[in-house]
Amino acid sequence: MASSLTVRASSAQQSVMTDAQSDPKRLGLMQGFPPPPDKRVTLPDAVFFSFPNLRWSVCNMRELLPTASVNRNPYYARPLPYDLREGIDEIVFNPTNSETPMSWQQSLAENYTDGVLIIHKGRVVYEKYRGCLSESANHAAMSMTKSLTGLLAEILIAQGKLDETALVGSLIPELKQSAFADATVRQVMDMTTSLQYSEQYADPNADIWKYSYAANPLPKPDSYTGPVGYFEYLQTVKKAGRHGLQFGYKTVNSDVLGWLISRASGKKFNVLASELIWSKLGMEYSADITVDGLGTPFAGGGLSATLRDLGRLGLVMLKDGKVDGVQVIPSAAVASIRAGGSQQAFAKAGFGTLPAGSYKSMWWHFHNKHGAFAARGVHGQTIYIDPTADMVLVRLSSHPVAANAAIDPTSLPAYEAVAQFLLSKPR
Q1: N or C: more exposed end of the chain, with fewer CB within 10 A?
Q2: What distances in angstroms separate CA 385 from CA 14, 15, 77, 373, 389, one per listed residue?
Q3: For residue range 87-132, what is the model confidence (pLDDT) as tens digits?
């Protein structure tokens, strides 16, 4: 789920415009004082997430939707050391199921990349900004937000404030009549709940659009009688079968988890995220998170942050919760995530580009030789962590197709090729 007002066309539309043709600066989107009518990306007409408009929107969510702030610590900005490396643009790999080589630089355009940061052994070895992105701009993280939500839950578990074996209905009485009532916190965290809920973006009748409409922060028409806000909608979700048997990627789990961590902590999602994570990692900028009409943060996909700060989040996961040798996130929380989830449960979901994958605490695991795991979001968002290569790779994009299945064939082999390059040419 990209935002509470995601346009249905954004996932189904296969634009013929290339990366260069759809560059928001080249198109003149929102340029001028005021911008001409044919270059405006606005609300409430909700065209802001259709392609190519999304190539501007992903860097400007605060201008389009109400947001809350995930505050940094203004007295602690930790610089990232630099050791830029030559030769990364020329790295060559074969995309999945292809015999035609592609270079790393070619892959950036292929995937409509807005920014890339590669950190090796704690130092930035590669950094590039394209499209709408700049060093100080927050970019929509999409479903990488879920990984932040999962990390917050793991921290509360490590602190003894949240019980992963507890039933959701016992912690949130409002959900006792919903599908989540007899699911455990862990089943919600790993998305092994069984729900009557469709998240097929290409289907205009999918439940995801009803959820989006409930969360829409704009006033509802007088004729509307459905739920208002994320929490009201979650109470309407029905059960499909027995929980715990298979993985099913459904954003509503993330917002239930957001509700759970707020109940456990007594704090709004963005406040807790600031206190436990964002203020502790030396972030340069505060992040933003979109909210529904009642001010509830979108724990399933509303985060926007800078490229470097997302790199810092990846680094703390790589370093077992430590920053400069100081434990700022409980090691048990990071270890739980890095262990990965059930590959058997995951296999039943049919993710063809991740045949050996698993999902744990809203982080994706590849179970490859390097033990790589990642935060991932639609339209190409990734924090890819390779412990063997001591590498964190952040890629922010505005690909016209939402589903990562269209992007993985030219992304995952590229990440592995960069890791191999760095391992083969140590500093």
Answers
A1: C
A2: 30, 31, 22, 5, 9
A3: 999 999 999 999 999 999 999 999 999 999 999 999 999 999 999 9
Q: Is the pLDDT of residue 136 over 50?
A: yes
Pairing of the two strands 326-327 and 358-360: unpaired
For residue 46, the model assigns a pLDDT of 61
Q: Indicate yes or no: pTM above 0.85.
A: yes
Q: What is the mean pLDDT of residues 312-338?
A: 98
Which of these is catalytic: 143, 147, 361, 398?
143
Two structure tokens written together for 352: 């063809």
424 is annotated as an active-site residue: no
- CA–CA separation, 378 vs 143, rounded Å? 7
Give the 3-state DSSP-derived string for 230-283, with helices as H, strands as E and coil as C: HHHHHCCCEECCCCCCCCCCCCHHHHHHHHHHHHHHCCCHHHHHHHHHHCCCCC
Rg (CA), the chain: 20
> Cα–chain-centroid distance for residue 8?
19
Q: What is the dihedral of CA 112, 56, 149, 191, to 10 degrees?
A: -60
**Which H or E element spans position 115?**
strand 113-120
What single-letter DSSP state applies at residue 186? H
Cα atoms in the Cβ-side hemisphere of radius 13 Å centred on 395: 33
Angle between helices 331-338 and 144-158 (to 10 degrees): 130
Q: What is the pLDDT of residue 9?
A: 42
